[in-house]
Each structure stands twice: as structure tokens, then as C-alpha cells.
Design brief:
The structure holds 2 protein chains of 2 kinds. Chain A is built from 11 helices and 4 strands, in the order H-H-H-E-H-H-E-E-H-E-H-H-H-H-H. Chain A is an alpha+beta fold. The longest helix of chain A has 33 residues. Chain B has 2 domains: 207 residues, Multidrug efflux transporter AcrB transmembrane domain (Multidrug efflux transporter AcrB transmembrane fold, Up-down Bundle); 167 residues, Gyrase A, domain 2 (2-Layer Sandwich), CATH 3.30.1360. Chain B is α+β, with helices and mostly antiparallel strands. The chains are: A alpha+beta, B alpha+beta.
């Protein structure tokens, strides 16, 4: 090992400890904005919840149609049908918005078509059928069925999910406190909640202004971000411990600065390589993964921020002398 | 050198076998990718004070499993939840009512002989049942069409007469309720006229169905095992030529009563087979066949929830997203080659192996791929790339400090080791607890991420290393400039 303090004394490294108040200001601001997002969303009459729930949480209306085909049914693009639905004018702003989250699916080789939308009135379902009859009709008489479907994410599922998450985080916290320190595990969890809180906050604003709904994919995105955040933080911890163990006669603050500078390239590269496929998904992927990819991409950026800036700067607090 | 070649051979063997696994075995796609139906079934305990034991649940599961297979839905899955529930997933099935009908029945088949001296009563109830069947058919048809008041009144009168004959004095305004009550009363009265069960479906060897000769209706054929055949012969012998009928009773309802001809008086019906005919349609005959083949349920089962699920992503969307993901991975590959040069190529190879191993494990276990599962896989790719980045950054650091190439590689691996281990183990810990405690989408996510983490530990610490060593055994590749730009190297080496 050719590791010595000299290696760093000549080299410039980021002085995180000197800028730590700026880091805290930025994070505190982001958390505040997120919190305001929840409040605004909660106070918006059409939402009434901290986040705008999607079809997976609320259930909705399902319309099934049988097409009249002579021999074999012609192929239709599900995306074209979705576009048609979005362009229907319902003279009701809310219903118009609901069409954006419609799901269209073909069964039995384009013979039947299934449309799932958030709960709408019977007359509105009729309007949907009428609007597409010219393009993909005619439909069989009696082949039409309209029913209400239940939510995919019930309260029971959410409850078990929360419990399992809590246990998972506690186990991780125990591991980190054994491998590192109790302070380390506390800050890792703090960073994790910081990341998830901000992402959820951004989506509450998106729900207010762009009517973006959270569905089961969003919950999965949050899980993924949590995993990414902890992994990212632990790598930085590892470097801090390594430098600390070398017993360099430097103040703790400076050791942290050195560790952060040393892992900076790695963190940026890893975030970059994770972002590349996500950006590809955002710009070229299908529409149903659009918001999922955006949530993940933001999670990667915020996760990197918390692990290279927020957590180390908080650690400098614990050993100020 | 020999040891290294051994590693390389092992790696190659793993790659080839994984590849074969991937093309031989099918991938299982989850309901959210394909759409389908999900049924939640609850096992009811017969005795309210006794709980459903895990053996009971297992027994119910194996019977239901056989029935589900009889339905012929591809890649269905049946798993237990908690202490008394089962979840059945039928991918691609958008009309689960048929499956629900087949699964919910206990399908306890009994052969019973009529009690002696009950001929008159039996005829009376059979006559009433015929009346009931006619009126039920009429009522069903009139529900679909407009019927004249006269006809409805006629139906009403027949129903009242039936109720009178059966001593049913409950009053209800609903025709359906009346009909249901009449049906149950007739059934229970008929079943009362039979001796206790003697031969049951547990002695069945197989069941089949065929169309009755010259008729449009179907019949279900039964074949008994040796024991059942003997019992059946004995049973038929005891009632042959007498005024006693053989009752075929399914789930407490007599579906058919047959007389046994005088010619069987000596030996009974031998040969160990029988047919049940009783107004079966092609579909209902098939349902009974499936139920009988699967055996009867040890405990009654109630379907508490039926849900049809449309795919979250359409086929078009999956195609488009897949192309985008591949494009993204290609960009990652370019990134790795630009920043790590020869090591980048090693990383790309190691990561391709990584993906291949993952797919092989998915087909082998098998893991049903859902969207959350794919998200877990993507995160694990990120971690696998991260492991390589950690190693190569350390190697570069060592090179910049003026170490020789081989030594830098070795130190790089050993120094990155603890970061990789810690990162992977923390993720693995959360995956394990999420997998055991979570349900639904959390489980799918934890499964693929957990598997990915374990495989990533292997590929990062062995594949990357073996491949890098292999590359370094060629002299023209063994140059520090193949790892980072010359100007970053200390003077004495370049």
C-alpha cells in the first residue's frame, strides 16, 4: 500500500466541510419544497391526498368491446386508440384528464378490445365507444360490457409493504452500525428518507400541475431509489473508514473531504452509467414507462447528491474537534 | 497459469450452460406484463373451532393444482398466502368465471343405493324435479325477452304449486329466490332417500367424456381402480332388478339416478367402469371431468376475490422500451470503453455474462418476470457496473501512483473488495427481509434484485478478474496506456 497523506497534500480536493452549510441549505430547501407539494396537493379539491392516486390505487371503469370481423380482424395500434381517447371532448375537464391514464389492450388477435380508465359515468363510457366505433368498429351487438374494477394496490398490500420496508431498513441499519458506526447508520437512513421524500414531493407537484398520477410503478421506483441510495452511501462510508483507519494525523473533517474527493469520480461515473439507460427510456421508450424512468433518473441524481454531499457533511458535525 | 486456465474453463462452461438454459427453457412473464386473471381462494374449515392446518392447505393446493392444469391455461401459478388462502394467477385469461366454477366445487362424488321401499317417494320427487327444471328454464328465458303477463302469471302459479307440494312456506317476492329454495329442497329430499355413501370418487382411476349416441348431450365416463371396481360390482349387484336406484351424488346433489337391470343380479356391473349421463353440455361435461380427475377437495373452498388485470404495458410499449433499454446499455458500453479502455472491454464482457447468468437463473428457478422484477434487475445491473467502476478506479489510482500494471490490478481488486462487499451485503439484507415479509410487487422486486446482487458479487470478483488476467497474458495488451491516458501516468513509467 502506497497510501500516504502526501498523496493528497499536493492535490486539490473539494472542501466539503467548508461548504457544508450550503449543502444543508440546498437539502433543506428541497425538503421544504417537497413538503409544500404535499400540502398543496392535499388542499387541491380534485386530489385531496398528498399524491394524486392512479388507477392502481383507486380502481376504475373497464370497457370491453367485441369487434365484428369478417374473416380475420385487422390490426390496430393501441397507441392510436389511446390518442383517440385523449382527444374526446367530454365537456368535463376532469374526465378529459382521466383519459390520459387510459390503458388499451387487444385480446384474441384483435377481436376484442379492453379499455381501462379511472371511474367515469355511464354516459361517458358511451361517448368513448361512439368515438372509436368509426375507426375500429363495427362492434358485435351484445359484445359490450362495462364494469368497475377494483384497485390492484389494496390497503392490505400497502400495509405489508410498509412493514417489510421498515424491517428491511432496520436490518440494514444494524448491519451498518456493526460494520461502521451507529452515527453512520443513522445518517444513511436519513439520506434514504431525504431522497424518497424529495422524489415523492416532486411527484406531488407534478400531480398538481401536470396531473401526473402515482401508480404501482411509482412505488417500485421508490423502492429502487431506496436501494440505490443506501448502496451509494455505503461506498462513500467505506472510503471514509479506510482513510480514518490509516491513522493519518489530519482532522476528521479533512479526512472526510479526502474520502469524498476520492470517491467522487466513482460516484459520478456510476450515476452516469445508471442515468444513460434511463435517459434512453425517457426519450425513446414507451409512454407507460415515461414517469417511472423520470422518477428513477431523479432518484439517481438526488441519491448521488445525498451520498457525496449531504451525508459526509453531516458526518463532519459528529466530530468537530 | 494452470489455475488461471482452470478458472477460465469453468467460466466458459458456465456461460455455455447458461446460454443453453436460456434458449431451452421458457421465460415466465407475470400478470402485469401479459394481463390475466387473479383469483383469491379461501379454504373454509369444516369445524369452526378448528383451524386450517398447513397439511390441509397443501392437500387443497394439490387438488386445485390438478384442476388448474386440467383447464389448460398456460403457465398458471397457484401459491399459498398466509394460513388459509391461495392465489391463483391465470395469465392471458380475461374471463375467469369458468375457472372459478371449476375450482370452487368440492367435487365429492358418491355412489349410493336407494333405501328399500322408497319407490313412491322417489318418483314423486323426480316428477317435482322435472317440473322445477321446466319452470327454471322458462324463467331463465323470460328474463332475456319480454314475456306476456299471462305467461308470467302461469309461471308464478306453477312455482306456488311446487312450494305447496314441498311444504315450503317461506314467502319471498323474488322468483329467483323461490326457485333456488325449491331446488335445494328437492335435492335434499332426494338425497335423503339414499343409503349412506359406499363408493366415492377416491376410488376413481380416471374420468373422461363423450357424446351420447344419437343425442346432442354429453356423458362423463368413469374408470375405477380394482377396489372401486369391486365395490361398484357389489353395489350394483345388491340393487339389480329391484325397485331401487343407484344414485350418483356430486357435492350432495343427486345428478343422476339409474336403475340397474335384472341381468346384473348375479355379479353386478363388473369391468370397473361406469358412465354418468344427465343433461350434460360439452362444457359442463368437461368441467365435471376436470373436477373428478383432480379428486375432491378435502375442505370446501370459497372464492373471495376475482380480478382481471390488463397488462400495464402493451406489447408495443414493451417493444419500444426494450429497444430504448438496449440503446441505453450500448451507451454504457461506449462510456466504459472510453473511460477504461481495455478494462472497459473486460467489463462489457463480464456484464454480458452477468446478464446471461441472471436470465439462466430466472428460467431455472423459475422466476416470473414482472415489471417490479425488471426494475430490480435494472438496479442490480447498476450495482454490477458500479462494482466494475470501483475496481477500475482503484486500478487507475494505483497506476497514477506509479505502480506496475499487474500490481495495480491486484491492489485495485483487493482495495475495492470491501466497498463492493458492503454495498452488496446491505442490498442483500434488505432484499431478504423484503422477500420474506413483502407481498405482491415487493416480492418480485426483491427476488430479482437479490439474485442479481449475489450473481454480481460472483461476476465482479471472479469474471472480471479472470478475464482481466487472461487479457494481461498477452504482451501487447499489457501496457498501462491501455488503461488510462499517457499524460496521467507518472514520468518514470511512460
Amino acid at each position: 500500500m502506497t497510501f500516504s497523506p502526501k498523496t493528497f497534500t499536493g492535490k486539490t480536493y473539494i472542501s466539503l466541510s467548508r461548504n457544508r452549510s450550503k449543502v444543508w441549505l440546498i437539502s433543506a430547501f428541497a425538503v421544504l419544497v417537497s413538503f409544500l407539494g404535499f400540502v398543496t396537493s392535499f388542499l387541491t379539491p380534485t386530489i385531496g391526498l398528498p399524491l394524486r392516486p392512479g388507477l392502481d390505487f383507486t380502481g376504475g371503469t373497464q370497457i370491453k368491446l367485441e369487434r365484428k370481423c369478417i374473416d380475420k380482424c385487422t390490426q390496430i395500434s393501441a397507441l392510436d386508440v389511446s390518442d383517440k381517447l385523449i382527444n374526446i371532448d367530454f365537456s368535463n375537464k376532469e374526465t378529459n384528464q382521466k383519459m390520459a391514464s387510459a390503458r388499451v389492450q387487444f385480446l384474441d388477435g384483435y377481436k376484442s378490445i379492453l379499455i381501462r380508465v379511472p371511474s367515469i359515468a355511464a354516459s361517458e363510457s358511451k361517448a368513448i365507444v361512439e368515438s372509436i366505433v368509426n375507426d375500429i368498429g363495427p362492434f358485435e351487438d351484445g359484445g359490450l360490457s362495462i364494469e368497475t374494477i377494483g384497485p390492484t394496490l389494496g390497503s392490505k398490500l400497502l400495509k405489508t409493504t410498509l412493514v417489510s420496508l421498515l424491517v428491511a431498513f432496520s436490518c440494514v441499519a444494524i448491519y451498518i452500525s456493526i460494520r461502521f458506526d451507529r452515527k453512520f447508520s443513522f445518517f444513511a437512513l436519513l439520506a434514504l428518507f431525504h431522497d424518497i421524500f424529495i422524489i415523492a414531493g416532486i411527484f406531488s407537484w407534478l400531480g398538481v400541475f401536470l396531473d401526473v398520477e402515482v401508480n404501482s410503478l411509482f412505488a417500485v421506483a421508490l423502492l429502487t431509489i431506496a436501494g440505490y441510495s443506501v448502496n451509494d452511501t455505503v461506498v462513500v462510508y467505506d472510503r471514509i473508514r479506510e482513510i480514518d483507519n490509516q491513522d493519518i494525523s489530519l482532522p476528521y473533517k479533512q479526512k472526510i473531504d479526502i474520502a469524498v474527493s476520492a470517491t467522487l469520480t466513482r460516484t459520478l461515473y456510476t450515476s452516469g452509467t445508471t442515468l444513460l439507460p434511463l435517459l434512453a427510456l425517457i426519450f425513446f421508450g414507451g409512454y407507460s414507462l415515461y414517469w417511472f424512468s423520470i422518477a428513477l433518473a431523479m432518484g439517481v441524481v438526488i441519491g448521488s447528491w445525498s451520498s457525496i454531499a449531504l451525508v459526509p457533511s453531516l458526518l463532519t458535525l459528529t466530530n468537530d474537534n | 497459469m494452470a489455475r488461471q486456465q482452470g478458472w477460465l474453463a469453468l467460466l466458459l462452461a458456465l456461460v455455455i450452460s447458461s446460454f443453453l438454459l436460456c434458449i431451452r427453457l421458457p421465460f415466465q412473464l407475470g400478470l402485469d406484463l401479459r394481463g390475466g386473471s387473479q383469483l383469491t381462494l379461501e379454504v373454509q374449515s369444516v369445524n369452526p373451532s378448528a383451524k386450517v392446518s398447513s397439511q390441509d392447505l397443501e392437500a387443497v393446493q394439490s387438488v386445485l393444482d390438478r384442476r388448474v392444469n386440467g383447464l389448460g391455461v398456460a403457465e398458471s401459478s397457484l401459491r399459498t398466502i398466509g394460513t388459509n388462502q391461495l392465489i391463483l394467477e391465470l395469465p392471458g385469461e380475461q374471463e375467469p368465471s369458468k375457472a372459478a366454477r371449476v375450482l370452487g366445487k368440492t367435487a365429492l362424488l358418491e355412489f349410493r343405493s336407494q333405501k328399500p321401499g322408497t319407490r313412491m317417494e322417489m318418483q314423486k320427487y323426480q316428477r317435482l324435479r322435472n317440473q322445477y327444471r321446466n319452470i327454471a328454464l322458462l324463467a331463465e328465458n323470460s328474463g332475456n325477452k319480454k314475456t306476456d303477463i299471462e305467461e308470467i302469471e302461469g309461471q308464478q302459479k306453477t312455482i306456488e304449486n311446487l312450494k305447496l307440494a314441498l311444504n315450503l312456506n317461506q314467502t319471498s317476492s323474488n322468483k329467483e329466490e323461490d326457485l333456488e329454495a325449491i331446488k335445494q329442497k328437492i335435492n335434499s329430499e332426494i338425497v335423503k332417500l339414499f343409503e349412506p355413501s359406499y363408493l366415492t370418487g377416491s376410488d376413481l382411476l380416471s374420468a373422461g367424456r363423450r357424446q351420447e349416441q344419437n343425442l346432442s348431450s354429453w356423458e362423463v365416463t368413469l374408470t375405477f381402480n380394482k377396489d372401486g371396481g369391486d365395490k361398484f360390482a357389489k353395489l350394483t349387484k345388491s340393487i339389480a332388478g329391484k325397485d331401487r336406484l343407484l344414485g350418483i351424488i356430486l357435492d350432495g346433489e343427486s345428478i343422476s339416478e339409474a336403475s340397474v337391470g335384472e341381468q346384473f343380479k348375479l355379479a353386478g356391473i363388473t369391468g370397473g367402469s361406469a358412465t354418468i349421463s344427465g343433461n350434460f353440455t360439452a362444457d359442463s361435461a368437461r368441467e365435471l371431468e376436470v373436477q373428478l380427475r383432480g379428486g375432491s377437495l378435502p375442505l370446501p373452498v370459497e372464492i373471495i376475490q376475482i380480478r382481471t388485470i390488463g397488462p400495464t404495458l402493451g406489447e408495443e410499449n414493451i417493444q419500444r422500451s426494450l429497444t430504448a433499454a438496449l440503446l441505453g446499455l450500448a451507451m454504457v458500453a461506449i462510456f466504459m470503453v472510453i473511460f477504461y479502455r481495455i478494462a472497459g472491454i473486460v467489463a462489457i464482457l463480464a456484464l454480458s455474462f452477468y446478464a446471461l447468468f441472471n436470465f439462466a437463473v430466472y428460467t431455472l428457478i423459475p422466476v416470473t418476470l414482472t415489471l417490479p422484477g425488471i426494475a430490480g434487475f435494472i438496479l442490480s445491473i447498476g450495482m454490477a457496473v458500479d462494482a466494475n467502476v470501483l475496481i477500475f478506479e482503484r486500478v487507475k489510482d494505483e497506476l497514477r501512483r506509479g505502480n506496475t500494471l499487474i500490481r495495480s490490478i491486484d491492489t485495485g481488486f483487493s482495495q475495492a473488495f470491501s466497498s463492493i462487499i458492503d454495498g452488496h451485503i446491505t442490498t442483500l439484507i434488505s432484499c431478504i427481509s423484503l422477500f420474506y415479509l413483502g407481498t405482491g410487487f415487493v416480492k418480485g422486486f426483491a427476488a430479482t434484485l437479490g439474485l442479481g446482487v449475489v450473481i454480481s458479487l460472483f461476476t465482479a470478483l471472479s469474471c472480471t478478474r479472470v478475464l482481466l488476467r487472461f487479457f494481461m497474458s498477452y504482451k501487447y495488451l499489457r501496457r498501462p496506456s491501455n488503461f488510462l491516458p499517457l499524460k496521467q501516468l507518472p514520468k518514470q513509467i511512460s
